[in-house]
Design brief:
This protein is mainly alpha-helical. The protein has one domain. 51% of the residues lie in helices and 0% in strands.
Length: 65
């Protein structure tokens, strides 16, 4: 599995996951469990929604040189 989630995107996903989880706890709703999705994609550095569009937020070898 090739990584397609960069470091800035990971930080955004973790913050988004925290917000979703906090709102789920605050409103006592099962919707807070959806925070698993951004946490998982940040942890594995891979987002399945990026595949059909060929997107990546990772730096490539050429960009870092």
């Amino acid at each position: 599995m090739k990584h397609n989630v960069g470091s800035g995107d990971k930080i955004f996903r973790i913050i988004l996951g925290l917000i979703i989880a906090a709102l789920g706890i605050y409103y006592k709703s099962w919707w807070g469990t959806l925070a698993i999705i951004p946490f998982f994609t940040a942890a594995v550095s891979w987002c399945p929604l990026y595949l059909p569009f060929g997107l990546t937020t990772c730096k490539t070898e050429k960009e870092s040189a």
